[in-house]
Design brief:
The chain is an all-alpha fold. It contains 7 helices and no strands. The radius of gyration is 15 Å and the shape is globular. The protein starts with 10 loop residues before the first helix and ends in a 13-residue tail after the last helix.
Length: 157
Amino acid sequence: MEPRLDYFGNPLAGKVLRHINSASKLLADSSLPITIQELVKIRASQINGCGFCTDMHTKDAAEAGESAQRLNLVAAWREAKVFTEAERAALELAEQGTRIADAAGGVTDEAWADAAKHFDEEQLVALISLLGVINAYNRINVINQQPAGDYQPGQFG
């Protein structure tokens, strides 16, 4: 698979990505636990069919110490016993927030209330924003057919 264009080498794309990357850095430094951030990025990327981001975030999570068992079970988190209640709430919000077009009402009040039990307001803002950012990255990579498999942890900073 070859990308449709050299997105990462394009000057305009470089400007766009600097802004998205700045938002991503702010979120990485937020009080939302990094483990939850990576799980949410992986799940949204799986749903969107973004191999590039799935590759990146599973490798980054593994490099940070996440177990292979948990990484292998993200797609089946509902049936897996390895996720905490907070992680489950974040994964549910990630799924509903990523699949907005599939759900007539968007994110349900129940999913929101469950997330609000586990996260404070700053963490909820970070979670919502993280979903916006990863979905933007996913869409860029899927539209451009950015190939997956060559990412090295820490490659982008």
